[in-house]
Every structure is written in C-alpha cells, then in structure tokens.
C-alpha cells in the first residue's frame, strides 16, 4: 500500500526517504562515488536486485541538508549516484541535494526505471529539476532477459545519456574490458555486508546457499 506521505508531490521537498547509503563505491558509475538509494519504486522489474527497496513505506527519513553535509564531509569521491528504488519518485528532494553537491564540484549519476521518453513527457514538475542536476542518466527498466555485462547498465535496453560535461561515458572497448568487474562487497564496522553493482544471478544464488550454511 502506498502511504499518503509517499505519493508524488506529497513528500516535503527537503526530506528524503532513504533505503540505503554507501560512502564509497566503484561500481555505481564512473570513478569513486557515494551511493544514495531511495525507498519506493513503481516499476517492479522482474529480477530486481533491490526488491526490499520497492515498497513505498517509511525507511530512513533524513533532511536534505543533513545528507548533503554528510556527503560533502567525505574525501576522495568524484560524485554521487542516485539509485533505488526509483529516484524520480523523490525527484524534488534529490534535485535539491544534487544542486548542493554539484555546487561543490561533484557530479551526479541518476538511475531510473523510466525511459528518456517517459521522463520528457512526464507531468511531474520536479522531474526536470532532477534532470537538470544529473550529469549521467541511466534510463529504462531492467529486463532480465536482456541482462548483459556492462559496467553502467543492468540490461542492454537501458540507455546511458550524458546530460552535462562532468562525466564522459567510457569507450565501448574500455567498458568491454571491465564488464566482468561489476560486483562490490562492503563490510561495515558492525558487520553489515552491502553487495552492489550488477552481480550475476549465479553468484547471488551461491552466496545465498553459503549464508544458509548449505
């Protein structure tokens, strides 16, 4: 069930509903990037790697100013990646966050299940604001039958679109050489393990068996 405060246009512009946060990653866009995963997605793609992030329910509510301060206090990052969930379901606060980050010299990558055509035709007034602060847009739903090794995309139907001058899409030959290096595991001080990137289904199945002691 979609809660009233999660519907489009009802969320305070300066508050984000976060599903996850990773200070540094090298598999969520070019360079070393902070990753912000938002909670809630209307697409429900079959084979989604982030199924727990799909429900439109409260997860971690955080003011944009607080999150911006946390990210800007980090060193050694090239930019920030917005993922989810569906970032355009929280386009207003993400646009406000992206504006702060870009003003500090960071780049923004945004992943979305919407196609570029859907975003262009959309009626949500916050969508253009998020596009305006996005340097690299990865657009289109994940289609499991079209899954293909690529350091930027989960399936071949998705488009990588440059919207600014801060990020250059790697040449196809370079992407082919790095296509297999797409999975990253981070162990937090409390023992929490975060898996991100585009892991092969066989790897996830094997890890699940090991975690169950099989």
Number of helices: 6
Percentage of residues in DSSP E strands: 15-25%
Total strands: the figure is 9
Oligomer: single chain
Q: What is the highest CATH level, the class?
A: Alpha Beta
Low-confidence stretches: 1-11, 173-179
The percent of residues in helical segments reads 10-25%
Which class best fits the helix and strand makeup?
A: alpha/beta
Rg of Cα set: 17 Å
First CA to last CA: what distance? 35 Å
Specify the CATH architecture: Alpha-Beta Barrel
- Gross morphology is globular
CATH topology: TIM Barrel
**Sequence of strands across the biggest β-sheet:** 3-1-2-4-5-6-7
How would you portray this structure in words?
- The chain contains 6 helices and 9 strands, in the order βββαβαβααββαββα.
- By secondary structure, it is α/β, with parallel strands linked by helices.
- The protein has a single domain, classed as TIM Barrel (Alpha-Beta Barrel), CATH 3.20.20.
- It has a 7-stranded mixed β-sheet.
- Helix 1 packs parallel to helix 2.
- It starts with 14 loop residues before the first strand and ends with a helix.
């Amino acid at each position: 069930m979609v809660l009233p405060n999660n519907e489009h246009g009802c969320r305070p512009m300066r508050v984000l509903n976060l599903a996850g946060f990773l200070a540094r990653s090298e598999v969520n866009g070019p360079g070393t990037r902070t990753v912000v995963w938002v909670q809630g997605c209307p697409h429900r793609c079959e084979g989604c790697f982030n199924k727990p992030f799909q429900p439109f329910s409260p997860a971690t509510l955080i003011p944009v100013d607080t999150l911006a301060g946390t990210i800007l206090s980090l060193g050694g990052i090239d930019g920030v990646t917005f993922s989810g969930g569906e970032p355009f379901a929280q386009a207003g606060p993400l646009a406000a966050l992206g504006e702060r980050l870009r003003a500090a010299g960071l780049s923004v990558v945004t992943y979305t299940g919407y196609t570029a055509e859907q975003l262009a035709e959309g009626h949500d007034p916050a969508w253009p604001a998020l596009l305006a602060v996005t340097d690299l847009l990865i657009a289109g739903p994940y289609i499991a039958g079209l899954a293909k090794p690529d350091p930027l995309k989960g399936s071949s139907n998705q488009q990588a679109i440059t919207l600014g001058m801060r990020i250059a899409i790697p040449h196809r030959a370079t992407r082919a050489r790095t296509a297999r290096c797409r999975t990253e595991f981070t162990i937090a001080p409390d023992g929490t393990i975060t898996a991100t990137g585009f892991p092969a289904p066989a790897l996830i199945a094997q890890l699940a068996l090991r975690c169950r002691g099989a």
